[in-house]
Amino acid sequence: MFKDNSSCDHVTHQKEITFDELAKGKTDIIFLNGRHDKFKPKIKDDKDAHYILKKCEDGNYIFGNYIGRFAFEGQEYVINSRFGKELEAKLLKTIDSAFFSSGGSVAGASGDIPMDYVLYASFISRLKLAKLSGFPSVYKKIPFRDYALHGSLDVKNFIKKDQPFMGKISSRKSSRVPDEVVARVLLKAYDILVRKNPKFALYDKEIRNFLLANANGEMKSVKDINVALNSKSVMNELYKDYKIALQIARVIILQDSRYANENAVKNLNFGYLLYAPNLFELYVKGLIEEALKILREKHNLDFMLLYQWPNDDERYRVDYLLKDKKDRTIVIDAKYRYFCERCGYCNETDMSNLVQIGKYIAAYKAKMGILVYARNCSCHKVLSENKEPIYLINVLDCPSKKDFNESIEAFKLGLANVIKKNFEEKK
């Protein structure tokens, strides 16, 4: 298995993997967050710059904007966050707080969340939605011996008066029944994840009974998965949640150790990916809310947080817009990347981000702009000291002088202090 930024064992696996390779239709990689148009390849210099995995000159690898687990061309890959396991755990918790942050959380005692748990949570959430539409059904032929006549006939009057029968007597040759193969595949995936962690069964105790009532047996082989996915019953738009649940079920079943060694599975490409920048935005949103609480309680500064808010002509949509009672605004943009201060290829992107936040300031008539990066060499930095200043604040300390929790606290205090300093001066 390839994991944790280490080199692969075999020379044939010393390769780069781009999104374009995974998206060509020869593989069944599912994306658990965001719309599919978020994952279009980014071509630069005739190469797909939207990489999943990139090899460095020293033979090691760096990861792109994705985290996940997949099998591709005979090798299994575990792609972790390039900013460490602690941040990764926080990002995973943003997906479904009901599963990972409640009193009955499926997370471990230390708060760690195995990456596959996100897959399981997505599966159950999708099934809960699917149940609301009933269960998909198919037409099933009725044996001749079970044909039933429909209609009515007064036989006594018919014989006595010798009247011709003017009605129509018909028999049903088929009827709609639950799609058993779909139910069996979903039930198999559900049993696997509950076996991995029984707490998942607590989030909807009726799911298993619902699937059992429609399955009428067990999944016979992994071939049933494709039969279910190609069934006409789940092509109906009404049952689109079942289709997505089946795609997730496929990954759950094929990753299970009981099926992983089957010949039918060994050469398949399958797995899941999460787009980390989307998760980072959600995580930073929570940190900003905590920083605003500090401003309210300690400095009597009250701001309303608006997420993904458009400007007046809807040309721009900033990640976070802060607005106070006097209608003064702050624009904040989150970037899941390392801020490069030296000259290099990545400096172009950082300059582009700086230009972008400047456009946001103008479009929203903001008093200041803040760029939030995952990591930077210095804690806080003033990027522009114009009338509307631009600040750079990083979530993680680099080089790592603090532990993770200290870095997070420093970020919240730093953000609160930057806002306090500028808005006290503007009173």
TrEMBL record:
It comes from the Bacteria. It holds the Pfam family McrBC. This is McrBC 5-methylcytosine restriction system component.
